[in-house]
Amino acid sequence: MMVFLPLFIIIGSLIVVIPYWMIFKKAGFPPFLGILMVVPIVNLVLLYVLAFSPWKVMPPNPNAYPVPNYPPQI
């Protein structure tokens, strides 16, 4: 059983790191921050930073997109 423990740790770490890698990349942060999510206290701090900081890929205001010039189709 002790032979499989490192394998389970690696698989469990990948299950945590890969989604956070994609979330950080889509939020405009460096994706390697996902690797830090396996560190116990750092993951809580990064989760709060991710939740409360402005994402760089979002428009600054909701009305950033222009209004189309054509009438709506019925």
UniProtKB/TrEMBL annotation:
<keyword id="KW-0812">Transmembrane</keyword>
<feature type="transmembrane region" description="Helical">
    <location>
        <begin position="31"/>
        <end position="51"/>
    </location>
</feature>
<protein>
    <submittedName>
        <fullName>Uncharacterized protein</fullName>
    </submittedName>
</protein>
<feature type="transmembrane region" description="Helical">
    <location>
        <begin position="6"/>
        <end position="24"/>
    </location>
</feature>
<keyword id="KW-0472">Membrane</keyword>
<keyword id="KW-1133">Transmembrane helix</keyword>
